[in-house]
Design goal:
With 119 residues, this protein is an all-alpha fold. The protein has 6 helices and no strands.
């Protein structure tokens, strides 16, 4: 948790972890499926169907209504409970731009990842 005391240390940790992940991908045959948050909120079904195929799981229309299943659970004990029981929403997408001035110190650290992931 010490890496999250300030934004600069958090950005450095992210950079180190992503560099390590990139190195592992070049060395090991890692079978993974990448999902971009913005794609998920823009088109849940189109994003989830390939994921389920990757996981070798059948499609079920209930996947699109995950929040109904979550509402029926009585054991969700997380600070984000109110988000878990809501349909996918896009209000968080791009929210970082409101804090661009405050995070400017992290941009040089994260620049290569911003370009790689097209942010």
């Amino acid at each position: 948790m010490a890496n999250f005391f300030n934004l600069e240390d958090s950005a450095k940790l992210y950079d180190h972890v992503m560099k390590l992940w990139t190195q592992y991908m070049s060395i090991f045959d890692i079978n993974y499926h990448e999902i971009k948050y913005e794609n998920l909120v823009q088109n849940l079904e189109k994003t989830i169907k390939p994921l389920l195929k990757f996981l070798e799981l059948p499609w079920n229309d209930n996947v699109l209504e995950f929040y109904k299943t979550a509402k029926n659970k009585h054991q969700i004990k997380t600070p984000s409970y109110d988000q878990v029981i809501r349909p996918i929403y896009s209000e968080s997408s791009g929210r970082w731009k409101m804090y661009e001035k405050q995070i400017s110190i992290t941009l040089p650290i994260l620049e290569s990842w911003i370009k790689k992931f097209n942010y």
